[in-house]
Amino acid sequence: MNLHFLSYRIILLSFFVLLEGVVSARHGRVLTDPCDLDIRHNGLYISSDQITVLMNGFSEYRIPLLLSIASSYTFSPLVSSMIILWGNPLTPSPLLSQLSRNLSLISDSIHLIRQPSSSLNSRFLPRPDLIKTRAVLVCDDDVEVDSKSLEFALRIWASNQDSLVGFFARSHDLDLSTKEWIYTVHPDRYSIVLTKIMILKTEYLFKYSCGGPLLMEMRRVVDEMQNCEDILMNFVVADEVNAGPILIGSEKLRDYGDSRNEEKNDSFREVGLSSRKGDHRKMRGFCIREFHRILKRMPLRYSHGKVIDSVGEQGLCKKGGKLVHCDDFLLG
Ligand SMILES: *[C@@H]1O[C@H](CO)[C@@H](O)[C@H](O)[C@H]1NC(C)=O
Ligand SMILES: *[C@@H]1O[C@H](CO)[C@@H](O)[C@H](O)[C@H]1NC(C)=O
Questions:
Q1: Domain presence at residue 26
Q2: Which of 5, 178, 205, 225 shows its CA 20 to 30 Å from the CA of 45?
């Protein structure tokens, strides 16, 4: 049993004609069936050394931050274009038009798309008319990665093109007392990378969005929970490669949504779609159990360790008021 089934083109087609009357703020266009195999193979991916950035935007408060993150992405030679998926249905249209104008001043390769529904699944729509790269960077509007780490992550992805490459890791686990799958954090291993920022091959967007009956049922869980789209993507990929994701070590990664951030500003971090804390972990455990129930097996696999971009020095120790290599210290 495997996740790629018949693609439910007809059902999806009517679904997208109804829901996805996509109005890219500057490019009024109606999307055709995103799972259409012809589009998929005609518009063959042009670029394999660049990525498309797929960023979720939600918070009006965070627009200044979004603009700054968007400009650093688009100035990167690694980024071919950027799609900002606006997921907040309450944002007034004039504000979005203004944002779109501001974005177009930064670059004409940024597309702002108001999500037609609150479904988190639409985050992973393949959008073959816009995505022309072999890989995409999926990220939130509150995480900033420096260009060196981005370049490194893309290099790691390029030599592991079937894997998910991310910067934030979590785990599934079996709670032995209740014999239930749970969502947790292990200090020494991980099986899930978060969509706060991850790189994956564009092909997986098709697998996620166009997969048949089981995946359709799993996508329904995402809609019901309004959560867990990232966990489902981890299921899809782990099922494909029978291996865990790859975690990149970066010291410069800035997560404005992290509650440990110095700027403790509630309006900054409580507005994200999936930031309702408290029950968050329980909900995600529930999703893992549901996905497992539907699939009748557990595809998630553990990985160990982080990939870092330099061997670096082995550490400095203080000796006689001076810093020396600890190895020398031990020898000396
Ligand atoms: C757009 O840019 C103008 C000028 O910098 C700024 O005043 C306004 O707040 C911005 N609005 C949005 C939605 O980005
Ligand atoms: C948090 O940020 C918002 C938006 O920038 C601002 O209006 C608000 O005053 C800030 N609150 C605190 C406690 O700093």
A1: yes
A2: 5
- What pLDDT is attached to residue 6? 41
Instruction: List the residue whose alpha carbon is closest to atom 4 of ligand 2.
Output: 61
226 Cα: distance to centroid of ligand 2 (angstroms): 26
Please choose from 62, 63, 66, 265 the residue to mutate so as to test ligand 2's pocket, defined by most ligand atoms within 8 A of CB.
Answer: 265
Which domain, by its residues, includes 42?
19-311
Mean predicted confidence (pLDDT) in 313-319: 68
Contact residues for 101 (Cβ-Cβ < 8 A; gap 6+): none
Q: Residue 184 and residue 31: Cα distance in Å, rounded?
A: 38
The angle at the Cα of 295, spanning 157 to 156, to the nearest 5 degrees, equals 5
Q: Which helix (H) or strand (E) holds 139?
A: strand 133-140
**Does the residue 320 lie in any domain?**
no
What is the pLDDT at residue 16? 42
From CA 164, how far away is CA 298, in angstroms rounded? 17
The pLDDT tens digits for 83-139 are 999 999 899 999 999 999 999 999 999 999 999 888 999 999 999 889 999 999 999
Residue 3 lies in a domain: no
Among protein residues, the one with the nearest Cα to ligand 2's atom 11 is 265
Catalytic residue, from 33, 142, 173, 230: name it: 230
- Kindly tell me if the per-residue pLDDT of 146 is higher than 80: yes
CA–CA separation, 111 and 104 (whole Å): 8
Catalytic residue check, 141: no
Residue 158, classed as helix, strand or coil, is helix
Rounded to an integer, what distance in angstroms lies between the CA atom of residue 9 and that of residue 89? 27
Specify the CATH number for the domain of residue 143.
3.90.550.10
| 327 falls within a domain | no
Locate 254 and state its tokens.
């800035």
Helix segments in the chain, DSSP class H: 9-19, 37-42, 63-74, 93-106, 147-158, 203-210, 213-225, 229-241, 266-269, 280-295, 326-331
* DSSP code of residue 103: H
Overall domain count for the chain: 1
